[in-house]
Each structure stands twice: as C-alpha cells, then as structure tokens.
Specification:
It contains four helices and no strands. It is mainly alpha-helical and 80 residues long. It has one domain: lambda repressor-like DNA-binding domains (434 Repressor (Amino-terminal Domain), Orthogonal Bundle), CATH 1.10.260.40. The chain is elongated and about 55 Å long.
C-alpha cells in the first residue's frame, strides 16, 4: 500500500469517526466539501497539506467545545 493510500484510508477513518457533518468539517478545515466527498469516495487522495488542514480544523472544533463545556460548568457552579 502506498503512502498516499495509507493517508487516504486514515483520513476517511478520521472523518467517519468524528461524527461531524461533512459541511462542518470542511468549514472548520477551510477546505471544500467536494474535497472531503472525493476523499471519502476514493476519487481523490488527500495531500499531506490538506490532511494537516483537517487536523487543524478538528483541533479548533475541540478547543471551542472545551471552552463551551467550561462555560457551562462555570455557570452551574454559580447557580449552586
């Protein structure tokens, strides 16, 4: 299996496991939804740069969710 095939397999796995809508993934990663669809269908292989963009988008989403969870917990503590 070539390196590009391994990367495509990993990216497809990550996209599916994220459970996030493809539109949201594309927005967070600042790539097109069509690119994500092409990766998932096997019509195109992601480049290492686009995989890095996807990783950065996932990290931004995770950071945002952690911040929102913190705010919610802080609000709960103030209500007690």
């Amino acid at each position: 299996m070539s390196e590009s095939e391994k990367l495509q397999r990993l990216v497809r796995e990550i996209i599916r496991e994220s459970g996030l809508p493809r539109t949201l993934l594309a927005k967070d990663a600042e790539i097109s939804r069509a690119a994500i669809e092409a990766w998932l269908s096997g019509n195109r292989n992601p480049t290492s740069q686009s995989a890095e963009q996807l990783a950065a988008g996932l990290e931004r989403r995770a950071t945002r969710l952690q911040y929102l969870a913190f705010r919610l917990r802080s609000g709960l503590e103030h209500d007690s």
